[in-house]
Amino acid sequence: MNRAYLGEFEEIVLLTVAALDGNAYGVVLTHEIAEQTGRSVRLNQIHSALQRLEEKGMVKSDMGEPTAERGGRRKRLYSVTAYGQRTLQQVREVRENLWSRLVKPFNLAIDL
Amino acid sequence: MKPDPRKPPVLAEKLLRWICAPHQVESILGDLHEEFIFQAKKVGLQKARLFYWCEALGFIKLRYIKRKKSPYSSTFIFSHDMIRNYFTIAWRTLSHSKVYSFINVIGLSIGLAAAMLILLYTKDEVSFDQFHANNPNIYRITSQFISTTGQQKGLGANTGFLQGPKFAAGVPEILHAVRYHGHRNDIKKGNEIKSEEVFRVDSSFFSIFSFPLLSGNPQTALKEPRSVVISEEMAEKHFGNKNVLGKTILMKDSFDKDARFEPFTVTGVAQKSPQNSSIKFNFLIPIVTNHGEMERSQNWFNTFLNTFVVLAPGTNVSLVEKKMNLVYNADAKEAIKEVAAKFGVTDRKVYRLQPFTEMHLSADLPADNGLTDHSNPQLSYILTGIALFILTIACINFVNLTVARSLKRAKEIGVRKVIGGGRMQLVVQFLGESFLLCLAAFIFALALVQLTLPTFNHLANKALAISYLFDIKLILGYLLLFFATGLLAGFYPALVLSGYDPVKTLYNRMQLSGKNYLQTSLVVLQFTIASFLIIGTLTINSQFNYLINKDLGYNDEHLISVEKNNLTREEAHLLTLELEKDPNIIAVAPKNGGRWNTAAKVSGNIELQFAYETIDPQFLPTIQVPIVNGRNFSDAFPADSARSVLVNETFVKQAGWKDPIGQIVDFWYDNLKYTVVGVVRDYHYTSLNEKIGPQLFTMKPRNQYGRFFVKIKAGTESTSLRHIGETYTKLFPLDPYTYKFIDDENQKRYESEAKWKQIMLFGTVLTIFISCIGLFGLATLSAERRTKEIGVRKVMGASVTSIARLLTSDFLKLVCISFVFAFPLAYYAIDKWLQNYPYRVDVSAVTFLEAALMAVVVAFLTVSFQSVRAALMNPVKSLRSE
Q1: Do A26 and B31 touch (CB under 8 A)?
Q2: Whole domain around residue A46: which residue ranges?
Q3: Interface test with A, best of B27, B54, B65, B68 (most A CBs within 10 A)
Q4: How many angstroms separate the CA atoms of B129 and B575, rounded?
Q5: What is the ipTM of this complex?
Q6: Which H or E element spans position B829?
Q7: Known InterPro entries for this protein (chain A) (predicted)?
């Protein structure tokens, strides 16, 4: 199967963009990812990932309205393209497939 | 929108704006700002700022810096069609604005020409003596005294007869040694006798130095004692052709009283010595010829000639020096002891080696005593400085004019950008223009160099030729100069012009941003350099005038000096009687020849070094120097010639005598004691570059005279000279006759000052000229740019004077600011320079004021022409268009 390579961090960013449903931009993404994954993310990493995703054609961006809290600057709002959606779908399928093949699913003794 | 008081760090924002690609920068800045506000609420302003900085620095990555590629294809910058287009446009613009092109070409070509001349000069200076095949293994033997306390003194490059042969025999690493001794000989051609400088050398001369012979065998040419190698020039002069092997020349030693003319056989004809050679000879004879001198010179302590050695390639020089000193200490052991016992000399002499190629520019051990054209490296620095100044100023003109004129071309740039011209294309376009101008300037400069070379040669005391240009290193140097100038002059304008925003140039009236600090500071720099040079020139000028006009303490007018070696007292007496037959001759006074120095004991243990003069009673009256204490020598006191001396005032001061008359001067190594009978007023017996030192006059009959002074009546020069010449040849038919006027001679002492004065003057005039044409160009452009403003002002009732003043004062202010920088610099430089002179002018405020006035007046004249023209323009014309 010929599919685009997607890094782990990129996957998280792409999923978060999808989850935010058209309201995704730099700061929100940082906060959301930090909250969801519990790891600290820096803005330049997010921007870098977004640029890569855009180059791969998995997200597209549009400029939003300027707001006062941004010093009068516009947001660049990201949304997932059809190609991005399909890639996410494929990733999920691969994972689920693999999970389903586990003979003895893990039983964690203590829920951390 | 109210500005938020809690602003993120401005500098960090600037940094981001600068590094991030334009299509990314807004969202990145926005995100960071939003995050900053969030953080500020959460953890406080200070931490938020720190956080902002950390985040901002995280954006220094190629990913954010990379610019988005243009989606539209662009023509390749160096495509065939574009190159043609660059040149077409460049040619059109340049020929369209003639004043501008003219100013740039003239300025640049003068600058380039100056730089080329200096390159020629420096090439010559550093290539001095490099042409010998044995380099770098040729050395000159030098010596130094080291006192018992380890103090180094008495550095000298002269050696005697012994050092060369002894060292060559005792140190195996020395392949050859050659002694080189310049000496004046009388040469007879028919009935005519000429005094010529003849060099006595060892027969190994041609094995060491690469002077090609036109005819003759270099190995054997100087083997026979009565052989002579002459230069092609002398062959032509003496025999009329160069085919002179085997012919004879009659020569005699001019210092030896008993010498006769003896025939020397020509065994070789040498090519003219290269102009960058320290050794330049017309006659070479074997050094063994002079037997009398040989005998007198079997002494380690006589030093009067240059000795050169060739070492085996790859020899350790300090080892050879050590071995040389071992040879000296062993061989001269007895002699050293003897001198120590007799004169109490305790200083130790140490021999060293100086690389042959270093002599020319050496400050401590110069090329002298028969070696020519020693030069001061300081002069190279001054020349290079002036050339760089001129070139810099020309480049500044270029930058200033191009940037100032660019406003007129803003529309062109806008249109080019709108129809798809990339920034690189514009840079290439403007650089192309600057190179085209530079090329024109370069060609002009070559012509200028050819034109000015004779004058430059005269001033710099060189014989440079344009054919020197055909040297791969020099050509590379010139190409480098060309490209450096093109880049230097064109790069900044190209960068500024290509950066114009097409929207602004096409819709708004273009203004240079800010106050145009660059142009302002460049003009200030130009005039700083110009005023600096003016002050320098004025100072050199006044110092020079001071030197040639200063009262020397004696009267050098109508005073003639005639050289005559070995003139005895009787001959001098006869000569005086003969000469005084002519009523136009006021006085005749014989004197010793060269400059003699010696030392003697005065009052107890004080030993004094002084100038030692042999004169007769007429001498002081002839040059009109008074006796301030005691009496002159006189024939009425027969003891004078044996027992009496005169001393000058400095002598008395240094000896510490209260009552000088009757004091004893003890020539202790001769066991002779003299009594002082008179004190002579101090006069400048040497050049003013030296302080008056102690001087002693004697009439000792054993000392022979070397020349005589003749004082003649004013206006009788030609008859008196004829009489002197006739008398001289009648009395001394076998001696060459040469005379000179003392006042001419005194002026000649300052020839180097006179030459440097002229070079500085040229440099200054050129600098001012180029600065002014630059200013002229700027004034023209500024007047053009402000045409409308002037029109409006006139319509509103401004007078012509007020408008002219408005336009002029802008530039004059800059000139005045330049003094602030020029004055301290110039003061420092000239103060340092004047320290070299014991007799000097003071650094005066008047010089600075004069320089300031000159700069202001010249700048004013330059600018006011354009200003007045602009102010006189009819406002209807300027306002009607557009």
Answers
A1: yes
A2: 8-100
A3: B27
A4: 46
A5: 0.85
A6: helix B800-834
A7: Tscrpt_reg_PadR_N (IPR005149), WH-like_DNA-bd_sf (IPR036388), WH_DNA-bd_sf (IPR036390)
- Please tell me if residue B27 touches chain A, with a CB cutoff of 8 Å: yes
Please tell me the number of Cα atoms within 13 Å of B183 on its side-chain side.
25
Q: What is the pLDDT of residues B410-453, one digit of tens each?
A: 778 888 888 877 777 888 888 888 888 888 888 999 899 889 88
Least CB–CB distance from B30: residue in A45, A48, A74: A74
Interface test with B, best of A23, A25, A27, A59 (most B CBs within 10 A): A27
- The pLDDT tens digits of the residues spanning B636-678 come to 888 887 788 999 999 999 888 888 898 888 887 677 888 999 9
Q: Which tokens go with A105?
A: 């699913």
Residue A1 covered by a domain: no
What is the DSSP secondary-structure string of A50-88?
HHHHHHHTSEEEEEEEEEGGGTSEEEEEEEE-HHHHHHH
Provide the domain count of chain A. Answer: 1
* CA distance linking residue B43 with residue B423, whole number of Å: 45
Distance, CA of B811 to CA of B778 (rounded, Å): 9
B-chain residues within 8 Å CB-CB of A25? Answer: 27, 31
Domain boundaries along the sequence of chain B:
10-67, 78-128+375-513, 138-358, 559-746
Write out the two tokens for B692.
């008056």
Residue A44: give its domain's CATH number.
Answer: 1.10.10.10
**Would A111 be classed as within a structural domain?**
no
- Is pLDDT of B467 > 80? no
Token code pair at residue B266: 């020509």
Tell me the average pLDDT across B770-798.
Answer: 84
CA B875 to each of CA B660, B799, B808: distance values in angstroms, whole numbers, following the listed order: 87, 12, 19
Of B147, B182, B179, nearest in space to B164 by CA: B179
List residues bridging with B180 in a β-sheet: B201, B306
Is residue A108 one of the residues assigned to a domain? no
Please tell me which of the candidates A42, A48, A72 has its beta carbon nearest to residue B55: A42
